[in-house]
Each structure stands twice: as structure tokens, then as C-alpha cells.
Amino acid sequence: MNFATTFLGKQALITGGLGFIGSNLARRLLALGANVTLVDTLHPEYGGNPYNLDGIASQVQFIQADQGDKKQITPLLARQNYIFNLAGQVSHTASMENPQHDLQTNASSHLALVEMCRQYNPQVKIIYSGTRQVYGIPNYLPVDEKHPVAPIDYNGISKLAGESYHLVAQRVYQLRVTSLRLTNVYGPRMYLRDASKNFIGDWFRRLCQGQPLHIFGDGSQLRDLNYIDDALNALLLAAANPLSDGKIYNLGGKKPISLLNLAKLMIKINGSGHYHLTPFPPERKRIDIGDYYGDYTKIYRELGWQPNTSLSEGLRQTLDYCREHKSHDYS
Ligand SMILES: NC(=O)c1ccc[n+]([C@@H]2O[C@H](COP(=O)([O-])OP(=O)(O)OC[C@H]3O[C@@H](n4cnc5c(N)ncnc54)[C@H](O)[C@@H]3O)[C@@H](O)[C@H]2O)c1
User: Fold this and answer.
1) What is the pLDDT of residues 8-21, one digit of tens each?
2) What is the best residue among 20, 102, 191 to mutate for testing ligand 1's pocket, by most ligand atoms within 8 Å of CB?
3) Which end of the chain is more exposed for a tag (fewer CB within 10 A), N or C?
């Protein structure tokens, strides 16, 4: 789909707007002529980074707030055409250590936002960022949307709850809601400081710092990945197309890759580096989903989305960005 006019002059609110996906989406929407408002708590343990707005801070409205904060969010809602709901606590291990906090962030605050939309702007189109984690350990591969949901960590439960509030509001109140169940997304502005939120950000940082990549287990686990530009295309396609109302879509990578081969490819593209195979820490093994890759046939058929960026190209662009901006991204 050509977005040349879809978002021109439209109002778009991005929750989690200073995080990885939200801040990249802000750039895309500005380039498409939208008026962009960002909401983010900037909670120190989350993935938000003020530097993610470098070069665009003066072009967006930024509200530091919880998306469920009625007093601060209500006044923003009435004028919005689109809400991209990208706010979240994304750490699986943190969800096990502090489940109430995870529940508040990923479920309660989303229910509050949905209810505010129902009251103050029932016409708005909402794109919710779901996750493959809701499927738990796959019964079959690739995983399509008919696969049973059976989360194996608290984060999967809270994300499923957040998604369900949106979809129930669609069914009961006809809110215009779409959920994209994302798989591993990577690219510039992702969280790099440690391994708490995703393994691949940790690997990018380690490569740039000359440290070994840690692979848990034997490295045979399969994953699929989406470069950020492809994930943004999916968010925009879902927003633009009314066919997506009330639907759930899986995203997926071009093809699955084992973690061992991913590490080798990253090292090759970086031009140097090494890896270690290490036993799974028990707290990670208990919530590991094994092999996963998604079936994106449904979103391809209905919205025309497919991943375009090759893994090599995406990794190269991300590594270039990490090297150039490391003083802002690692601290
Ligand atoms: N990146 C991935 O690989 C991936 C995979 C599956 C799902 N997702 C989902 O996509 C969304 C965005 O992921 P990301 O990688 O950009 O994460 P991120 O951690 O970089 O960004 C999330 C942002 O949300 C903010 N936030 C959290 N709770 C908030 C609240 N209640 N109100 C306002 N702001 C809040 C955080 O401060 C952070 O800036 C998340 O909901 C995540 O669950 C991401």
C-alpha cells in the first residue's frame, strides 16, 4: 500500500513512544506528514530512551505519563485518528521477579486506555503490539493465529490480557482494534544496555564492545526476526486498512535461523567477534519456549504485508547504528 496520503495531516498518538519501536514509528509518521504525540513513562527499568528522539524532539509533542493516567491522557484522545499502543514492560525475567508491576504495566494500564477510548474517542483506530510469547511452547511450526495460546511466563499472560481487553472492546463496543503479534524485532534504537529485555540487543552491544556473545544451550533454538522497517510497515498497513479491524495477525521473519547461526552471521558482518555456548541459567530455562517461528500468511493475504529486509542487511544497518551512537545507547 502506498501511504503517501493516508497519514498526511492525521493525528497519531504513540504510547511507549520513547521506546525502540515507538520512536522509530514516530520518525516514519512524521515523514508521512502526520502530527505525532508520544506518551511514555520513561520508567528507568523500561526500554525508553530520550535520545531516541534525537533530531525529531521539536517535531513531536511528548507527554511523560502512564498511558492509563486518565488526567493526562484524556485531553489528548479526542483529536486522535490513530493510536499505536506500543507501551509495555518487555522483560520476561522481570515479569517473574515482579509480576504485579508487570500486570499493572501490560494489562491494567491498557484496560484504562481502552476504556478512555471508549468514552472519549470510540472512532479512533488502535493498533496493539501483541507478542508471539502468548503461544508459549509451540505445538507446531510455523505458528499461525489458530495455534492455542498458552503462555509459559507472566509476561505472556499480561500481554495476552492487554490484547484481550482491546479485542473485547472491539466486540462489545465496536472499537476499531487490531493486534499484531510481533516476533523478535531488531534495529536502530533498540535496548542495548543488558540482556534483561532481549538477547539480540545484548549481542549487538557485546559485538561493538569486543565481548563474547553468550548463547544459552547448544544454539540450535530456532527464531525468526523482523527488521524494524518491516515491523513499522505492518503497523502502518494495519492502521490504514479497515479490513484489519478486530483481527489478530502474526508477523514472521523471512526464514527461521538457529541462534548459533545468527551469532555466526552477526560476527561475520561485524568483521570480528566470538561466542560462548553456556548452560541456560535456571531462571531462563524455566521460561524458554524452545523453537519458534511464525506463519505470516494471514497478514500477507489480507493486508499485503511480508518482510522485505534480508537478515544480513538488517544486521548490518543495526550494527552501523550501534557503533555510531553507542555513547547514548549503552549507558
Ligand atoms: N521488540 C520486540 O521484539 C517485541 C516483540 C514482541 C512484542 N513487542 C511489544 O512491542 C511493544 C514495544 O516494544 P519495544 O521493543 O519498543 O519496547 P521498549 O521497551 O523499547 O518500549 C516500550 C516503551 O513503553 C514505555 N511504557 C511502558 N509502560 C508504559 C505505560 N504504562 N505508559 C506509557 N509508557 C509506557 C516504556 O517506558 C518504553 O519506553 C511492547 O509492548 C512489546 O511488548 C516487542
Assistant:
1) 999 999 999 999 99
2) 20
3) C
